[in-house]
Amino acid sequence: MMDEFVYKLCTEDKNFAAIATVMPDGSPHVSIVWIDADEDYIYVNTAEGRAKPENLRRDNRVAVSIFDADNLYKQAMVKGTAVEDTETDAEEHIHRMAKKYLGLEKYPHGKPDEIRIVFKIKPESVFKLE
Amino acid sequence: MMDEFVYKLCTEDKNFAAIATVMPDGSPHVSIVWIDADEDYIYVNTAEGRAKPENLRRDNRVAVSIFDADNLYKQAMVKGTAVEDTETDAEEHIHRMAKKYLGLEKYPHGKPDEIRIVFKIKPESVFKLE
């Protein structure tokens, strides 16, 4: 079961997250992403060819800091592992995210031939600032 | 010379940054921080005993994503190295940061015996979303 504070940060508001992975040379990578969750997992939607999916397939350890966009002092630092990545429903998922974050029916930034992927992240530890 | 877009993001508004480092076991670490810059370096103020300073002293490679707090789609992803860390003026610096971010003369979250440190980060590459 997901920590309730983390679940709410991921689902209730248009909150962003910083997601950190490790590059092939061992250096860190970070990007700001949209975030989603269910009762067990955190979901991050990305696209093939970016650093994140390549990094996560090589080393699935991930750090995610989810912060309240209206109050950046409210945040959760989650460590976990990417347990699955899938193209299935990833297109539908990015459109749902566009609805949540932008109020649009369709994700407006998609590129032709872009392949969306959803990473499923299992939280293993949480440090909270409430 | 610092990239002007990055410099402005770091100095003109109360923008936050996500800073990623690598843990001793090679897993990623990320936290949301206040940010500062001059014409050459990015500055991050932290405290002894936290993960960041220990990580950066072992492996000084760092990824910093600086985002506009009012428009999270405006951001700069910087890769660089922590070229120096110092206690000198770190107390004064955290008070200046408290002034910038909270409008307070004094940093309100200091703990007794806490040792502040400023990390000086040299940007090496920048990916911008403007």
How would you sum up this structure, described in words?
The structure is a homodimer of 130-residue chains. Chain A has 130 residues and is an alpha+beta fold. Chain A has one domain (4-129): Pnp Oxidase, Chain A. Helix content of chain A is 22%, strand content 46%. Chain A contains 3 helices and 7 strands, in the order H-E-E-E-E-H-E-E-H-E. In chain A, strand 3 and strand 4 (42-47) form a beta hairpin. Chain A starts with a helix and ends with a strand. The A-B interface holds A 16, 18-22, 26-32, 59, 61-65, 67, 69, 72, 75, 77, 79 and B 16, 18-22, 26-32, 59, 61-65, 67, 69, 72, 75, 77, 79.
Present the secondary structure layout.
2 copies of one chain form a homodimer.
Chain A: H1 4-11, E1 16-22, E2 28-34, E3 36-37, E4 42-47, H2 51-58, E5 61-68, E6 71-86, H3 90-102, E7 116-129
Antiparallel strand pairs in A: 1-2, 1-5, 3-4, 4-7, 5-6, 6-7
CATH T-level topology of chain A: Pnp Oxidase, Chain A
Mean pLDDT of chain A: 95
What is the top-level CATH class of chain A?
Answer: Mainly Beta
Report the portion of residues of chain A in β strands. over 45%
Q: Please summarize the sheet with the most strands of chain A.
A: 7 strands, antiparallel
Oligomer category: homodimer
Would you identify the CATH H-level superfamily of chain A? Answer: Electron Transport, Fmn-binding Protein, Chain A
N- to C-terminal separation of chain A?
20 Å
Largest protein interface? A-B, 25 and 25 residues
